[in-house]
Amino acid sequence: MQDDEQVFTDLYERHRGAVYALLLGRTSDPSVASDLLQETFLRLWRRLPDVSGLEPGRQRAWLVTVARNLVIDRYRAQATRRATDQVIAQREPRPDPYDHGTAERAVLADQLDQLDRHIAELPEAQRVVLSMHVVADMNSQEIADALDLPAGTVRSRLHAARVRLAAALEPEPESR
């Protein structure tokens, strides 16, 4: 049993960052992404003898496929609740107006809300590669391998996501 546990631990440590980033990119919700990550690796545990015999690239492909399917299943099962869950998950508690330093925290909370909102509005393909790059610290070739895409496509999507975010977050000119 210890041998299976070590194999599982090695696979988990090697692939959790990429799988989590993919899930975060697909769901835009860290809590949901964490839940789906747990489910992905629970399925790995159940199929460990089959998956451990695969080459490392095929192991990652198997995990990515399971993660993608879990996201699709989640959206199918909770289609009516999805919008509500995203709104609730993205809301940060508002600072206490009587707390010292509240103005700075309120500005920061507003900026973070705005950033979250703009990231959630990115097309899914851009949001996924951006999350995998930022959250999992993966380069374009690693993302391409995980998603079975050309590296140029990943770089293009990453660039497009950055351009859209920069344009959305650019301060509006002050009117006089």
| Rg on CA atoms, Å | 19 Å
Low-pLDDT segments, ≥5 res:
none
Tell me the number of helical segments per DSSP (H or I, 4 or more residues long). 9
What is the general shape? Answer: globular
Blueprint (SSEs and pairs):
Elements: H1 2-27, H2 30-46, H3 48-52, H4 56-77, H5 82-90, H6 102-121, H7 124-134, H8 140-147, H9 151-169
Helix pairs in contact: 1-2, 1-4, 1-7, 2-4, 6-9, 7-9, 8-9
What features would you describe in this structure?
This protein is mostly helical and 176 residues long. The protein has one domain: Up-down Bundle (Butyryl-CoA Dehydrogenase, subunit A, domain 3). It is 78% helix and 0% strand. It contains 9 helices and no strands. The relative contact order is 0.12.
What's this entry about, in short?
With 176 residues, the chain is mainly alpha-helical.
What key attributes describe this structure?
176 residues; mainly alpha; Butyryl-CoA Dehydrogenase, subunit A, domain 3; 78% helix
